[in-house]
Amino acid sequence: MTTILKTVIQSACLKTAANLTAQLAARWQTSSPYSSIDWQRVFEFTIFGLIQAWLNCGWQQLLEDAFPTRPNISSQQAKKNDKPAGSVNNLQGGKINWLNVLCKLVLDQTLGLFVMNTTFLICTNALRLRSASLVLQVVREKIWIVIRAAWKLWPWVSICNFLWVPAEQRVLVASCVGFGWNIFLTFISMRK
User: Fold this and answer.
1) Tens digits of per-residue pLDDT, 49-61?
2) How far apart are CA 125 and CA 138, in angstroms?
3) Entry pTM
4) CB 138 within 8 A of CB 121
5) Rounded-to-integer distance, Cα 10 and Cα 12, Å
6) Is the pLDDT of residue 100 over 80?
7) Mean pLDDT, rounded, for 3-14
8) Which of 83, 84, 94, 8 lies closest to 53 in space, CA to CA?
9) Could you write out the DSSP letters of every residue in the chain?
10) Residue 73 pLDDT > 80, yes or no?
11) How many C-beta atoms lie closer than 10 Å to residue 83's C-beta?
12) Which of 16, 97, 110, 142 sits between 20 and 30 A of 189, alpha carbons compared?
């Protein structure tokens, strides 16, 4: 199984678990232990996890290719330094390119957040509304609310990811942090 496929499946499982956790918490909070789980919402979050993780894997690799955090060391240089070529950590130089980190952060927290959160709003509303114009209306109404909320958490996660996590593992790290974020998104999506 490829790394991307594993990441996509793990992300979908984490988003599904976060949605179930939020629904159970909502049941507990309202003292309504007999209300049923909204399995359609669980399915929507699973689909969102599959689509968003696939998009984000490509996005993270694109950002790293365009704006590497550290300069690459050639395979020749890696051999000279007695380090195996192809090793993620060994192909990285030591000095951080802060301008590239800043460029990735700005792109990720503007274009990236817009695309990922639009994907969320579409995935969690398309089956319920069954009308492209109604889904677009929900996106228009909620996208900036979700993005402004995201700016309180995701810039910090992105900086840590860009500095210390290899590009191919960033989506999984974000998915783990996203467990809590997806509980928040569940509550947002449950609002009428």
Assistant:
1) 999 999 999 999 9
2) 8
3) 0.83
4) yes
5) 5
6) yes
7) 96
8) 8
9) --HHHHHHHHHHHHHHHHHHHHHHHHHHHTT-TTSPP-HHHHHHHHHHHHHHHHHHHHHHHHHHHHS-SSPBPPHHHHHHTT--TT-TTTTB-SS--HHHHHHHHHHIIIIIHHHHHHHHHHHTTHHHH--HHHHHHHHHHHHHHHHHHHTTTHHHHHHHHHHHS-GGGHHHHHHHHHHHHHHHHHHHHH--
10) no
11) 15
12) 110
| The token pair that represents 104 in the structure block | 């990735």
CA 151 to the chain's CA centroid = 13
Q: Do residues 22 and 187 touch, judged by C-beta distance below 8 A?
A: yes
Query: What is residue 33's predicted lDDT score, i.e. its pLDDT?
Result: 64
Q: Residue type for 188, please?
A: I
* Tokens encoding 77: 């240089």
Amino acid sitting at position 81:
N
